[in-house]
Specification:
The chain contains five helices and 19 strands. It is an alpha+beta fold.
């Protein structure tokens, strides 16, 4: 089952996907945490009862939003692939290395990433992200997967020159990253530790890895975050990017207006975004 966040006219909404059409779900963007497990249950009930003639909204003609619940916290993991640590000149972390992203720094599929007016060093980072469905604190690793509602593709876009002096700044420019195109329910992802991740820029492969190469796998990350924070339904954990980022290339390959970025994860989806210049 896949659910999407989208614009219904001037109003944000949630829906479920049948083929390439979006059918609406009953939920409000009211600033509170989102019960994703209930939302998926509603979607399954609709799918079981919906007439095959029921008209939906064409996915291709719809403005998609980043499928992140209002009020959610977005936890991001840095240096979680060994080869990426090597290309970044970093030692392997003895514990997960975390930072936070503002949800407003992320756009939905098909929406433009904005190269900021203050820097040309906008970089791509393809990642698998998980979305929490069941709240918890001090979650044991053995129990962690019971708290996952869904998975999605994530572009942890980075403004590298700012990141060098402030991770918070470099990771939180407006519209510098992306998430989507939808949430794929956890029951459809047989093994999140064995997914192929591929990032392309203008059709050229830049990153190719498998989530089996994660230094800290999904369950470990959930347990670690929950040791200091109450995880809530809708919270997102982006699991880190593999090698091949633009900053590590010689010469560096920064994203420029007109570029097209595609992040594809087997069994989860493909996140496509153009790049545009930020308005001055």
């Amino acid at each position: 089952m896949r659910i999407v966040a989208y614009m219904d006219g001037a109003v944000p909404a949630w829906g479920w996907l049948r083929d390439d059409n979006i059918l609406p779900l009953q939920v409000n963007f009211d600033g509170s945490s989102l019960d994703l497990l209930a939302l998926f249950a509603q979607a399954r009930a609709h799918a079981a009862n919906a007439s095959t003639t029921q008209r939906g909204r064409a996915l291709a003609d719809t403005i998609l939003l980043a499928p992140i619940a209002p009020g959610a916290t977005v936890y991001c993991v840095g240096i979680n692939y060994k080869a990426h640590a090597g290309e970044a000149g970093r030692e392997l972390p003895s514990n997960p290395s975390l930072f936070l992203r503002r949800p407003s720094s992320l756009v939905g599929a098909g929406q433009p990433l904005r190269r900021p007016i203050d820097s040309v060093q906008l970089d791509f980072e393809g990642e698998l992200a998980l979305v929490i469905g069941r709240a918890g604190r001090h979650i044991a690793t053995a129990d962690a997967m019971q708290h996952v509602a869904a998975y999605t593709c994530f572009n942890d876009g980075s403004v590298r020159d700012f990141q060098r002096h402030s991770v918070t700044a470099g990771k939180n420019f407006e519209a510098s990253g992306a998430c989507g195109p939808w949430l794929t329910s956890a029951d459809e992802v047989t093994d999140p530790g064995d997914l192929r991740l591929r990032t392309r820029v203008n059709g050229v492969e830049m990153q190719l890895a498998n989530t089996s190469q994660l230094i800290y796998p999904v369950a470990t990350l959930i347990s670690y975050v929950s040791c200091f924070a109450q995880l809530r339904p809708g919270d997102v954990i982006a699991t880190g990017t593999p090698e091949g980022v633009g900053a590590a290339r010689n010469p560096p390959q920064w994203l420029a207006p007109g570029d097209q970025v595609s992040i594809e994860i087997s069994g989860v989806g493909r996140l496509d975004n153009p790049v545009a210049e930020e308005a001055s």
